[in-house]
Design brief:
By secondary structure, the chain is an alpha/beta fold. Helix content is 40%, strand content 12%. α4 packs parallel to α5, α4 crosses α12 and α9 runs parallel beside α10.
Length: 339
């Protein structure tokens, strides 16, 4: 079967017959889970197996947003709570090496949780740098307020995931931290100069160009393209993401169902691919919306296929050894110092 360049969600804890039939026909590259899809380890493991069975690929990537803090799809009682990105930036404020070690440890533990149930991609790290007056949609999800701190701790988290056999997704490229609106609900418009964006917002992404996967920002940067958000802007994709930032990994859209985007789902999807995105992402499990995305998504081929294969090749089948009980105790001990 021919794989199409999109990632899809499903509606519940198990696949419906209609969903299974749709995925068999549409052949998405991968899938994404949300809280509505999560109950117990056994259930998540079975759902991941069912999703992969529909496309006939045991390596089909399954994604999740497991950042910690307020964005954590797998949580108690079956999985521990994890701190927000900002918490790592507050640890041992005068010792960035300790911050880095603990951020990596937290991500390594998350990877352990995810791999144990079949999830192989985490939409982490958040590389957005908040600015004064920006919307709190990023807020404490960010590792700090300087590009350097965000990049250092973001890299630590990405390395922790990779060591545990889970692919990181750097987001939201080329930067959501300055946005004055929540792109789930409205289209943010950023009016900073290109010089300021390159110095501040884009900088962390330039420091993590070796990461396999990235997610776009549904944000308009008037200094670059006053008409289109990054997701559907060829200018932003070519001049900034592939150009100034120098990123050659797989670029997926943020969720195509977010209200920052307008138009039909077919037109949104077509615009994202015309801009240069490699992969469409649709999250809410709506069959009507998914069908439109699938119809507009191209066959995964060419440079996008190369990038997708290169990403999957980064998943280690020999994860770094971890004693989860000891590692969790070390993480909790570090966190207790700022409680």
């Amino acid at each position: 079967m021919t794989t199409r360049a999109f990632i899809a969600g499903c509606s519940g804890l198990t696949l419906t017959p209609d969903e299974a039939a749709f995925f068999r026909e549409a052949q998405p590259w991968g899938f994404i889970l949300f809280r509505r899809n999560v109950d117990s380890p056994e259930q998540v493991r079975a759902l991941c197996a069912s999703l992969r069975d529909t496309v006939g690929r045991t390596d089909a990537p399954i994604l999740i947003d497991q950042e910690g803090g307020r964005v954590q799809r797998m949580g108690p009682p079956h999985w521990p709570k994890y701190p927000s990105g900002r918490t790592y930036g507050q640890l041992h404020a005068n010792d960035p090496l300790v911050q880095r070690e603990i951020a990596r440890l937290g991500a390594r533990l998350i990877a352990h949780d995810l791999r144990s149930v079949g999830v192989t991609v985490d939409c982490l790290p958040v590389l957005d740098v908040p600015s004064p007056g920006s919307h709190d949609i990023i807020g404490d999800r960010a590792y700090g307020r300087t590009p350097a701190q965000v990049a250092i701790l973001g890299r630590a988290a990405a390395e922790g995931l990779l060591a545990g056999g889970v692919l990181p997704v750097v987001k939201h490229m080329p930067g959501h931290g300055r946005a004055g609106a929540d792109s789930h609900l409205a289209l943010p418009i950023v009016e900073a100069s290109r010089e300021e964006l390159e110095r501040h917002d884009f900088a962390p992404f330039r420091m993590l160009t070796d990461m396999p996967l990235a997610m776009t920002a549904h944000v308009v940067y008037t200094a670059l393209d006053p008409e289109n958000p990054a997701t559907t802007s060829r200018v932003v994709m070519e001049e900034i993401i592939r150009g100034h930032i120098g990123y050659d990994g797989l670029v997926m859209t943020d969720d195509l169902s977010m209200h920052a985007l307008s138009g039909s789902f077919r037109s949104r999807t077509e615009a994202a691919f015309a801009a240069g995105c490699d992969m469409g992402l649709h999250c809410n499990g709506s069959m009507e919306e998914m069908s439109a995305v699938a119809e507009a998504a191209p066959v995964l081929a060419g440079e996008s296929l190369r990038r997708a294969n290169a990403a999957l090749a980064r998943i280690t089948h020999d994860p770094e050894p971890l004693d989860p009980v000891d590692a969790r105790a070390r993480l909790d001990s570090a966190l207790a110092m700022i409680a």
